[in-house]
Amino acid sequence: MIAGMMVTGGCAVPSLFDHARATASGAMVAEPGSIVAIDHLSDSDARQPVPGGHGALVHYRSTDAHTGKSRTASGMVFVPPGVAPRGGWPVLAFASASPGTETACPAPTAPAVEPEPTVVQYLSHGYAVAVSTGSAASAMPGVPDSATAGLALIDSVRALRRAYPNVSTHWAAIGVAQGGAGVWDADTLAHRYAPDLQLLGAVALSPTADMTGLVSRAQRGTLSNDQARLVQQTQIAHGRHPLDLDTRRTDDVDQNRAAQSTCGGASRPLIADVARMSGPLDVVEPTTAAVEPLRASLAAAAVSAGPLSAPLSVVYGTDDTVVDPAWTTDVLRRECAAGGTLTWQLESGTGRTDTDHTRQIDWVTDRFGGRPAQSSCQTTSVDAEGAGAVVAAAPVPTVASALPPGSHAARVLYRSTEGDTGLPTVVSGTVFSPAGTPPPGGWPVIAYGHGTTGIDTDCGLSGSPTLQGQAALVSSFLSFGYAVSLPDYQGLGGPGPHPYLDARTAGLNVIDSVRALRATFPDISTRWGALGHSQGGAAVWSADEQAGTYAPELAFVGAVALAPAASVTGIVDKSDRRTLTTDQIPAFALIVTSLQRLHPELDLDEYRHGVAAEHWSAIAACAGPLLGERAAALARIRSADVAPDTAVASDRVHRLLARWALPQRPASAPMSVLYGSADQLVDAGWTTNALHRACAMGDTIEFDEQAGGTHSDLDLTGQLPWLRDRFAGQPAPDNCR
């Protein structure tokens, strides 16, 4: 949240803007967007990008987002040659990357437009252009106060309209790097700060949306050279956020620190030398007292991720050496939760300066044309770029030795999609192909969804030489002539965090594991079925719901869901009543821990008490020395030890789990659901209710609540034949009718 903003109903209300106007009242020149100084460019001026057009260097009034006080910003404004269209020239506001950290960077007499080709292109498309280049507030160089930068961008449009006639109130914005962060915040602030203007869309390219991750990297000594130099440039933070600079600069870097913030003058040639000298060891933070002010300043500079005023398109790259793509992904997740129309593209092999903003012109043109923008939030698309593509593959000889002779096995990292946001992810898993000659059309596939193994990155099956006891099951499938895919799920064995019991994400991981299997081994059919247990039972259920639209190139025949954790909101109710079973107590602890990693606003101390509080980390352990402590703790823990403190804390977890509950949509193919009446982990009533809802959606389901059956003790003898009949095209039994 931006400092100085009131919060009402969860939304930031920028009352400070009214304060800013009140502060500036009485002097027309102090109104946001009013011009303090202007220097018109002649046709012969090298800075005039288009012959016959009009341009000017401007100083104009804007607002400090943190204090509400009036401040001066600088920029350049342009209008195309010719006659303006009816309603005036539409406006593109461009937020440039910061050229330096000094208040004179750039000066209003900057020698050239940056980037000049961009301005030329915008003008040639018939847009008036406002370029915001100066920012008086910055938490770190390259990491500006994005809210203040966003307000400066908005006011550059007002300055453009004051400088030239026939300029429309309709505008869009594009920004790169720190300018991208400014554009992002301009989108969240425009509807309140500038009701006189109509923002139609915004594009943020490689945005420095949240750089707090720099602190953790500095502490671990894993900064890239570009990041190390960035952290070294903290002089600019000294005035606003008092920091002890001596904890952040050492040796040769310290001796040349003045060159690190320069944007011109005699020190300019030293910049390259300083960049080469800067390294992770130059910025190690020795004390918490030194770390926290830096973290706070970076948090204050981050985008607010509030409700959007207009559609936002974000483009960022996997190879950015300044902004870790995971940091941007996290902000996108928060923005999706805040609401609005948001789309994004993670470009493989692209760095910070490689993103091609020219391709976003068509997207902007569509916004001016009134065409609706698509949102990636809470959707998944068959066009998810690279979904199922294999990032890396390696043999697993210890696993292969337990399989039928001649079988093929590989551990893979593959691309998938996060269910809540549609964001691209990388997931680990294991894939297998039978020995012998494949049948016509290739080996049919069974994707297996495993049950709960934990919530940490070392809990994936693919890292175990026995697949955590699942190698025998895989061997059985292979002997029956099925290729097999075995996903770990997002965050287990690959990049995290793991969204425990998010069946939608796990279902997409299952589907993409089949694509990864087909990309790894030859002669694999497009026809596939799925079988899963517990967490995996919900995963294959969700895969059934999504397969028809997410992977239409594959032929899904059906799913077997064993004791599926399809809808577990009831576990919160039982926790409130202190009636959790011994199986449900550690499960609820895993749920709360996983949710807190996804939603940091959750306070774990509201859910852990007594023995649970003492051994919380051990309860979530899936490997290592904590396993002994885990067993001892579980022998002592009681339901009251994990009960929510308040009704608000209970409702928060209940609502988050309800978003993941199945069913969510009609299934693509028939299902067989098997569960036990004596299940002590997933209450039978929860599964029965989910089945009733799925039947009401028109699903074809054969289900069996086995009397006396438990979570792990079910009679499975009919399930593989059920799948075999689906591959054979036999009509599926249906208990829903």
From TrEMBL:
InterPro entries found in the cross-reference section: AB_hydrolase_fold (IPR029058), Lipase_secreted (IPR005152)
Pfam families reported in the protein's UniProt record: LIP
Protein's recorded name: Secretory lipase
Organism: Williamsia maris
